[in-house]
Specification:
With about 260 residues, this protein is α/β, with parallel strands linked by helices. The chain is about 45% helix and about 15% strand. Strand 4 and strand 5 form a beta hairpin.
Length: about 260
């Protein structure tokens, strides 16, 4: 890491995935060291060891930590801009802003002061999704590909419930349309942790005692087969006599299946 910074010159700064690792935003993995250098620097990438990025705004985005790295807000923006697709950029921003020690207002200000050259509207949209309560890429996928694509009502996001004296948050609930139905969206890694698994079992038991219907989906179901998820959610909502906006609305995937 220090060798990469030495190669980049006196103003070189850890950035992108390497800065995100230093901020503990992403897991540490075997990948090249990302550094950002002034735009006029002669340093070039030395794969597979170092990836060199250039910036005209480095003096504003650089923090003098040891080793120096980009600010949290700028690290997230840099990572989003480097994604291959707008969808990937949107998911990354939602995930990192929701899970990192960075405020939404600070992110909005960063975009205003240093507008990204790629995916600008996508990044702004991602921040608005976070503002409405979405906390992960999986929740975004559920809202767009399950609810909206199939004419389901928009569930309430991050609904608080008290279990064993503690306030826990359910991902999606449909009490607003007259049905005591909870949809829990399992993340990709956290449920192997013993404490979290115990908490979720207690939450399941509390839902059962309260007479709530609950459905649980992971990334695989929501991303790969949203039509089947939508059909199941609609079936439970109808069984609980929910007020639905209309009949089932098939998406192109439903029609082609």
């Amino acid at each position: 890491m220090y060798a990469a910074l030495l190669y980049g010159g006196g103003e070189a700064t850890l950035s992108h995935y390497t800065a995100a690792e230093e901020w503990r935003m992403v897991p540490i993995a075997e990948r090249p060291i990302d550094i950002t250098v002034p735009y006029t620097s002669s340093a070039v990438s030395q794969l597979p060891l170092v990836i060199v990025h250039r910036s005209r705004a480095l003096r504003y985005t650089r923090l003098g930590t040891d080793p120096p790295r980009t600010k949290r807000t700028d690290t997230i923006i840099d990572l989003a801009v480097s994604q291959e697709t707008p969808e990937a950029a949107l998911y990354l921003v939602v995930d990192l802003v929701s899970q990192s020690a960075v405020s939404l207002d600070a992110m909005m200000e960063c975009v205003r002061v240093r507008p990204p050259f790629r995916y600008r509207s996508t990044i702004k949209h991602a921040l608005e999704l976070v503002r409405t309560g979405l906390m992960s890429a999986l929740e975004v996928e559920y809202q767009q590909q399950v609810e909206r694509a199939h004419g389901l009502p928009a569930g309430s996001k991050q609904t608080p419930f008290v279990v064993d004296g503690k306030t826990l948050w359910e991902d999606v609930t449909y009490d607003g349309c007259g049905a005591e139905v909870t949809v829990r969206l399992d993340g990709r890694a956290t449920h192997s942790i013993a404490g979290i698994a115990f908490r979720d079992r207690r939450r399941d038991n509390a839902a059962e005692l309260a007479g709530r219907s609950r459905l649980v989906y992971g990334w695989h179901e929501v991303h790969n087969n949203p039509c089947a998820v939508a059909q199941e959610v609609r079936a439970v909502l109808m069984r609980r006599r929910a007020v639905l906006p209309g009949p089932h609305t098939p998406c192109p995937g439903c029609v082609g299946s």
